[in-house]
Structure formats: C-alpha cells, structure tokens
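Tutorial, part two.
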Amino acid sequence: MSAAASLRFMPDFRLQLNGAPAPPELRASVVRVAMVSGLEGSDRVELTLVNDGLRWLDNPLFALDTSFVLSLGYADTDVEQVFVGSVVGISADFPANAAPTVTVVAHDARYGMTRGQKVRWFAIPIPSVGNFPIPDLATAPLVALENLLLPVLDPVGAAISILIGGAEAAAAIADPGGAQKFIRKQANESDYEFLSKLARENGWEMIVDHTGPVGGHLLHFMSPLDHLDPDVELSYGRDVIDFMPRISNVGQILSVAGYVWVPAIKLSFTIVLGWDWDRMSLSLLIYPTVPLGDVVPTTHFIRDPLTLASAPRKLVGELLPKLNKRLTATGTALGDPAIRAGSVARINGVGVQFGGLWRVTEATHTLDGGGFHTQFKARKEIWFGSIPLPAQGAVPIRASF
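Running the prediction step on this input gives:
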C-alpha cells in the first residue's frame, strides 16, 4: 500500500485555543478527544492530555472561557469543523500506577443560556388596547439574539408555527382585552429552558450549527419535517460496526387529549390529537367530555386546563416526542463528522423494518488509541413515513446459504 493510500486510515484533528492553533507539543500530549452533540443540552468536548512533568497543570492555555474550536476527520480528506465553544472546566488525575492526566471540558454557547433564571413576559403594549402577545416566531429569535446567537428558522417550521398559533392570534384579535392570557411568560426559567419549551410546542429541534465561518454562533430552530434528505449513507458491514434497533409498543402513545371549556356555551369538550400508523396521518377528534376512565390506554391525557386557542400547541408538544420514541436505535460507525445531532442517516443492509432513514438524536465522536469511531443514537420519525421504503433504502435482505 502506498503512503498516500494509507492516509485514508489516519484519523486527524485540529484544535484552536483563543483563535490560535494549538502548539505541537500540546497535540503530541493528547491521548483522547471526545465530542458529543445531542438534541438535548449543549454540545461538549472532552480533551484528555498526558501530563508528563505536570507541564499542563495550571497552564493559561486552558483558562476558563477560553475559546475552543475542534475539527475532526482524516489525513487525506482534511478535517471538518465540528465544534465551536469555550472552556468551562478542567480536572486532573494523579493515579498511583500511571502517568498523570489533565482533562479539559468545553461546551457550546447553549451552556451560557442555562445559567440564571428570569421572570418576564413577551408582549407589545398598545395604547388604549393593552398588551398584545408577541408570536413565538419573533420571541425565539429575540431570546437567541440576547445570548449573542444568530437565529435560523426553517420555512416549514415557521409555517407550522403560524398554523399552530393561528387560533391564539384569532382569539387575541377578537378579544384584545383577553389577549393577556396568550402572552408568553418566562417564569423562573433559564433562557435554555424557556426556548426548549417554545421549540417543543412548535415542533422544532434547537441545534447549534458549528460549521462555516460563523459556526458556533448559529442557533437553528429546525423543523424535522423540513429536513428529510439523508446527510450520510451508512451500510452494515462497511461503515457500521454495530447497530441495535428496537421497536416496542410498551407504553406506546397513539394520541393525546385534553379538556377544553367553552364559556360561551358553558360546555366542556374533549379534544384528541392522534396518529394513524396505517395512513401515516394526523387525526383530530372533538366530542363532549367523557370520564377519564373512558379514554383508551394509548391516549395520554393532559390534565392542565386548555382553551380552544392553547390546545393546538399543547397537543402537538406532547404528541410528537412520544410518537418518535416507538422505533429507536443505537450504533457505532467508523468515525464520520457528518453523523451529528439532527442529521439524517440512511442505513443500508439491515432489512426493511430497520433500514432506511433515521434521525440522529445524539452522536459521540471519539479519537483515541483505538482509532476514530462514532457512536450514535437515532429514531425513526413519523415524517419519514411519507417517503416510500425502497426510496429510503429499506429493502429486503436476501439470505445466502
């Protein structure tokens, strides 16, 4: 094998601290790099160095809040920027029978959003009318900008938010005096908790984009429905080292329901939002209130009081996450920076039921003495049902004897 060909199997990484490349002696001391990206919480990196002669102890290169940029890849294809953040912690290990080590921990910009709690509301005061609620499409970007992050919203996600919020807007216009009840309130919550709630009730995922010149500064409110094309193609036996999918009906929720009181007619109704797996479509039922015991076991009941205006957000926010837990998987692949939280992976060679498109919910890239590999968690989303299985790559496996 030529030297050029062998580079294909040589994992590589680049590290920048405070905007400058890490010195060669630091790179030579690195024994492990682990980068975790997920749909929950902030992305993070752990960098472990051999601390011979305690040379890295108390080193100013790792001062708290130092900017931290990591790129991963292979020697022949160059590396890809996968993380932009800052140092949030450092720890040391002084074992009895091994060399001492130092571990540096960095988080992305969402980490700063978790610190502190706020009490405020989002509305526009209108003279002689009162306070008019600011829609979520404007509230989420406002909070992102406060945290020095550039908001990005998908067209489909924005459209869904408008449709879901239509009932609230109509109610506020019809009764300006009662618009107060539709105002978004941040009550003893961090900015991260508040934005997570907004994202959930609008069907969004909140992701930091680390790529490009402004990587680490883009907060993407992504609608999974707007991102169904595969970002990476993996095959069992080639790229995929192990793959463990799981489908289960245990605790499966097919619909969510809630009570709605209509003051004008003094009647209570039950609204049920469900998912039809055969037709791959949402269904909406409204009927006079029934006792809780009459609700089918696969229905999750929202006990908080709802209104005709607030019901759509609450029902969507409860139903979609539960539906997407029906078919999940974990796996390990050869190191690939394209496998990241929010990306879509096409997995081949695992049959019809478990093959095809998967949404990556968490990815852990590890580069150490064992090489470069990526562990991932994924889910089969209901939106993938709109794509024919053969087009997804979910095809039968021909047994050979």
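Helices lie at 3-6, 24-29, 110-113, 136-146, 155-174, 191-202, 311-323, 389-392. In part three we will examine how such features are distributed along the chain.
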